[in-house]
Amino acid sequence: MRSFIIRLFILSSLLIPAFASAATSSTSLTGLWWNPNESGWGMSLTQQGTTVFVAWYTYNSTGQPVWYVMSSCPVVGSSCTGDIYDVKGGTPLALPWNGSGKVVAKVGTGILAFTDNNTGTFSYSVNGANDTKNITRQMFATGTSQPATDYSALWWNENESGWGVALTQQYETIFATLYSYDASGNPVWYVASNCPLSGNGCTGELYQVSGGSAPSAAWNANLAVTQVGAVSFVLNDSCTGIMTYTINGVTTTKAITNQLPAANQCAASTVAVKTAAGVCAATLTQGLTEIKSNLVYGRSLA
Prior knowledge:
mainly beta; eight-stranded antiparallel β-barrel; 9% helix
């Protein structure tokens, strides 16, 4: 398992899905993207309609894991351009949520340009540093048939706006990336790179990765991988679920909902959850409007 995590973004020897125009499907770009020659950093893309939400997991100048977001990257032709934001001041997942100290800062601009649904480039300017990276869709699982429900999406708890979890599903395996904060309120991410589906849920070991290079430096990673706990998902459908995790000995359970469901996808679940618990998944229109006006993870982050 450790060697698998260290090769966090090493491309599997699997066939890449057939070419399709990036603009032909509302979810065609959704998935994990990486540069196989720079294993250790990556991006989760979530596309609904012609808008892409980008979560970029990378490292700071001391090699500690950090994340940035492009919360609104509208697709025009075969590319999208969006502002890149840094978010600080949230609460660690092991503690009760208190987002009153969150600070959202624009740190640059990113451009994603796609040759097809599986290859492209990522050009960015972050804190004055400029670079262009080749990226490809990461394939991490294989199988003979896809399950009836695909849980790939951004998930969150709307009452704790500021953290989230990106689920990417391929066949019977989910790759989960949790975006949160450390004890000082700095952004940090964790991965469950092998969460095998069993029924309507999965359980996987949770890791923190450090030792990568910052976007401002040439890639020269000396990755260290530390298991910090485990995470389990029970997903009622593609709209609502429960996430239970243990990080550094502290176990917590949170209700989660699909942050950017397709139009009308979660109507029934929304009504039921509103009635039972006062929590609902946003509709596509609501979600995109909130993201555009509040920058990151949908609501009241600034």
